[in-house]
Amino acid sequence: MTKKTDLLDEAGVDTRLAHLGSDPFAFHGFVNPPIYRGSTVLFPDAEVLESEDQQYTYGTHGTPTTDALCTAINALEGSAGTVLVPSGLAAVTVAFLAYLSAGDHALVVDSVYGPSRRFCNRTLKRFGIEVDYYDPQIGAGIEALFKPNTKLVHLESPGSNTFEIQDVPAISEVAHRHGAVVTMDNTWATPLYFRPLDHGVDVSIHAVTKYPAGHSDILMGAISANEANWKALERINLYLGLSASPEDSYLVLRGLRTMGIRLEHHRKSALTLAEWLEGHEQVARVLHPALPSFPGHDLWKRDFKGSSGIFSFVLKANGKDRFLATASAFLDALRIFGLGYSWGGYESLALRVNLTDRTITKVPEEGPVIRLQVGLENVEDLQADIERGFAAAKAV
């Protein structure tokens, strides 16, 4: 008889999301795996206590609940193993610590998530690790930046806030030729729209806080590695003692069941708004990879299966001295869009992007950059809310 797990390999995305990480008959037939809370795990005898030759040994090393989520993520990513950590930023930092040592050199994309840059500049530097930033559009030209001690190349595609698309296969090929590990923050696309390991990346990093959880009430990160790099990742996470709670893992599993449907709604609404904004008189530019006008659109179309619900646009302003005032007026007039960080939840959010940390890439100069997280509300209501913002900005 064919097993359900075998059928899932060929099933559609939503079917897979409904069933991955679920083994009801291992839990008395209940559809959702129960929450296993605990620190202490007992051993049957002194011999097993010494050898630790059993599946579970301590709460930080995994429970049936956290393992169910890891199993689901491995299936989505095509990875050999996944570790869960308390936040998306922790996922980035743990990955870096797994593959970098004192005296090593790392290449990090200049459009990287801001807190990841802070960790590189302050913590890795203190540990004697050198970091250089590179242009996200460099492609195979990254070879010129390699040094004999380059051990890691970090990608984020699309880039944070400005959404540059990287040539992931080309960069990965160069990095592997030089013996470097390739890590990638894939939070924007999720493995539904882009699978990094299929494009040459060794380690896929995901802020599970965003689309997998989907309800703005959980913090979690996931790091998924290929076979060659899994053991080093598993080892450093064990040494650091980091783990995600079983309760949060249970809720992320529940969020996964609807992620495909939610992500499709985010995608459609965001693209509708992006296309509308592109023709608006108060918009200088729209930064959305799925728009044909976007500089990295061809690469996006080649590699990605879809786009998500977050993008930015450049709001026109009457002079640089009016950038902050214009952005503030726009944001303060919004009523449905909340003003806040994070994204991937059901509610729409907006903020002004600060790009002062960029050292290589040229940032938009026509006006302030506004980032929109497009939630699950009706797109007509979101459009009307943005118009309220435009009216207020025009008066500045």
Instruction: Determine and state the CATH class of the largest domain.
Output: Alpha Beta
| Percent of residues in helices | 25-40%
Beginning-to-end CA distance, first to last residue: 69 Å
The arrangement of helices and strands along the chain is HHHHEHEHEEHEHEEHHEHEHEEEH
Globally, the shape reads globular
Number of separate structural domains? 2
Name the CATH superfamily classification of the largest domain.
Type I PLP-dependent aspartate aminotransferase-like (Major domain)
Named CATH topology of the largest domain: Aspartate Aminotransferase, domain 2
Identify low-pLDDT runs: none
What is the arithmetic mean of pLDDT?
Answer: 95
Content of β-strand: 5-15%
What's the total helix number?
A: 13
Catalytic activity: L,L-cystathionine + H2O = L-homocysteine + pyruvate + NH4(+)
Protein name: Cystathionine beta-lyase
Pfam families: Cys_Met_Meta_PP (PF01053)
Cofactor: pyridoxal 5'-phosphate
